[in-house]
Amino acid sequence: MRGFVKGLxxxxxxxxxxxxxxIYDSDAGENVSVNVTRNDAPPAEAIREARxxxxxxxxxxxxxxxxxxxxFELSVSENTPTEITLRRTKPDLCKALVPNGxxxxxxxxxxxxxxxxxxxxxxxxx
Length: 126
Hints:
126 residues
């Protein structure tokens, strides 16, 4: 029993080290990046609205005046429909009054999707 508990403790300590971002580099020179679920991933951002228009995902989010699309990490699943989650990775520390937030835009190409791919946003709405 003591060996089992010791093995369980080692597994619990090693598990977080095994979940990370994996990058595969093939001989053909193609880079593939896979975002594996991380224990330290920021929580999903509560957003004001989201829609697909003109070949892009457009999301309205809170802002203090400096929020940009590059401040977010987007997780895109391979489910049908595709599930997209927005996570803020860089806080907006500006002090402007932006009562309606800002609209951010990611094209289907940015998301790695074919135009018209069925998709849904998993973030909670404010």
